[in-house]
Amino acid sequence: MSNDPTTPVPASVPAAAPAAAPAPDSPFRAEPGDRDLAPQFVLPLVVRIERAAPPPRTDALETAARAVLVMLGDERSTGDGAWARAMRDWQDARIRKVVRRARGAEWRRAEALPGITVTGKNAEVRVFPPVPLDGWPKDLARLQVSGTDLDDPEPPAAADPAAPVLWMNPDLDMSAGKAMAQAGHGAQLAWWALSDGERSAWREAGFPLSVRTADPARWGGLTTGGLPVVRDAGFTEIAPGSCTVVADHPALRR
Fold first, then answer.
1. pTM above 0.85, yes or no
2. Residue 141 above 90 pLDDT?
């Protein structure tokens, strides 16, 4: 499951700090900038895929998105927390997420490393504090990025319109890992765009959200309606600048 740097287009800048106007050299601009000269970090996510019981695709996407939010909202990620420096370094450069897969002993070794395991209906995703692009812990570096995809045995139910929805582009064919990373980007953009009070309410509710593929007839309106949009840098799988996800949080609707 391959994924790589993308260029989401946010309504606000990264935070562990309060939301503010984007800096001229945003971590999300498509063109090269000063942030590309900074040390590059990546947020690792590992999805548990046991051979006999892989999770449904939508469940894995939703769990990955929630895992990113749990990491952003964790007290260790802000202020003087144990992960705060790594989170700041990650957000000062390009925003990168990589999803790897594990099972059995691989999963147990991943769980032994500092991080947070988030569970969905059946899916399990462990998110780790950011690491240097070329400095992965060996027990994560040896995990596979590609080679396994996921399916939904049944079409997912309609999304709850009163809860956040991450709408996936209906015209793009992405591997499960790529889609999980994109869902994580969408969740992160929604988090950045919210006020402190709205973030707290979402966190206290357990970060409810849905990931759904948009109706093709609605997609154009979603991407131009003022909601946060993720645009891919085009390093793998899809063309540069492709809109992959629209982050539709009720608090951000016009």
1. yes
2. yes
What span, in angstroms and rounded, lies between the C-alpha atoms of 31 and 121?
39
Other Cβ atoms within 10 Å of 1 Cβ, number: 25
176-193 vs 57-73: helix crossing angle, rounded to 10: 40
Tokens of 80: 């003087």
* Mean pLDDT value of segment 110-129: 98
What single letter denotes the amino acid at residue 9?
A: V
Q: Specify the pLDDT at position 232.
A: 75
Judged by phi (left if over 0) then psi (alpha if -120 to 50, else beta), residue 79 lies in left
* E-state strands within 160-202: 165-168
Report residue 77 as tokens. Answer: 């990620």
User: What dihedral do alpha carbons 36, 3, 146, 214 form, nearest 10°?
Assistant: -170
Residue 125: closest CA among 110, 139, 146: 110
State the distance between the two ends of the chain, measured CA to CA, in whole angstroms. 35
Residue 198 token pair: 């709205």
Q: Taking the CB of residue 43, how many other CB atoms lie within 10 A of it?
A: 25
Both tokens of 216, joined, read 């093709």
Q: Which residue's entry shows tokens 């950011």?
A: 130
Structure token digits, residue 90 = 């990650």
